[in-house]
Amino acid sequence: LDRLAEEGVRFTRAYSPSGWCMPSRAALLTGRYPHAVGVVENGPQPTPDFPTWADRLRALGWRTGVVGKWHSHNRDFDALGFDEHAVLPVPPSPGDYSTESERMYLVDGEATFSDRYVTDYFTDAALDFLERNADGPFALALHYNAPHRSGPPSSTELWHFADGFAGLYDPEGVALPPTADDDLADKPAYHRADRAREVFAAHSPAELRRALAQYLSLVSELDEAVGRVLAKLEELGVADDTIVVFTSDNGIFLGEHGMLLKGALLYEEQVHVPLVVRAPGSAGGARVEGPVNLVDLAPTLLELVGGAPDPGWQGRSLAGALRSPDELPARAPGGADAAVFLQNGDLRGLATRRWKLVDAAGATELYDLAEDPWERVDLGASPAHARTVAELRARLAAERRRALDDERLP
Predict the structure, then answer these.
(1) Which residues pair with 106 in a beta bridge?
(2) Residues 160-174, buried b or exposed e (16+ Cβ, 10 A)?
(3) 3-class secondary-structure state, position 210
(4) Using CA atoms, how far apart are residues 230 and 4, in angstroms rounded to an integer?
(5) Strands 347-351 and 110-114
(6) What is the mean pLDDT of each run of 10 residues along the chain (410 residues)?
(7) Which end of the chain is more exposed for a tag (fewer CB within 10 A), N or C?
(8) Burial group, residue 332, by CB count within 10 angstroms (0-12, 13-18, 19+)
(9) How far apart are CA 211 and CA 404, in angstroms?
């Protein structure tokens, strides 16, 4: 992953469209925010009837495939634009990648069983797709589970990892984050009531350190798997002509704010995600510091391959920023302080280079991300910041109207 970041462009302030898997994945596919797609929470939902980036590429003659965690209706592959598929369906739990049991995969619609460790299975399936389609053009969506938690919510074991990574990180050497003991007394009540607080409270400090060591092992597994994919592109002689995007559908709490796993919140830990893009002609090793949203990826991919995005897509292409990192798409007046629209369930927010505004029922929160990156101090009611709050609320309202999310606006 470090190598990929050195060769590509790293977007240091990338935000997921949602803090939950299914809404974020629907938005990534369609270039539309979750509310516009009609998928705002996890659970059985109809297939979004919107064009996806895979649809657009397939129409241009590309061979499309998806490998890994699916987390949608198990027969929706073709409807969403994919020619080939080798996925872990739902059920079983999309996070169940323990090493103890055989699991079922859907391979081009047929049930296939394997006891191969799930991260390795996904990588092998991806390499097979690349070998068969190297003459291109091809587009592969590779969805690793790791480092998502394992098993159902009731499971006491939060993460499983392959035997080869056991003991890689010593739990005694893993520190809990500095906000682990925060009581959130000065925050709106919904912070303290979130289920992620309950999950954290159910574990002792020793259990939490062991869980974090397991999590780090999964990240190392993922790093190795990505390395295998990059090596295969080089072996096939297509690395220089292939766009590689690395990101995540959402983040996770690892003890921050006294929380564990996911919540219905807009803290950085849940919605701030990695994003690296390596593309022909991109500025290798560059960093883009301004905020972007993953709904921007669909129009970005289409522009990079010379195709036309769907006019209904709500993201803005980042192709210009790949060539010149200072060339972020215009989102609002004052480009240096461009803002992105955030949402998670009923929460709405706006993030700029410095500020984050969160609009919750009965509360407006403001965080100075430059001075307070852990988001400990809510400045929403501070008289000294009233002007900033007013300006950001106006910008949020304008962004919500642009995103067709104005039914709750006054």
Answers:
(1) 87, 111
(2) bbbeebeeebebeeb
(3) helix
(4) 9
(5) unpaired
(6) 95 94 91 90 72 94 93 72 87 57 82 86 96 96 87 62 80 94 95 94 91 90 96 97 96 95 95 96 89 95 93 92 76 59 94 94 92 97 97 93 72
(7) C
(8) middle
(9) 40
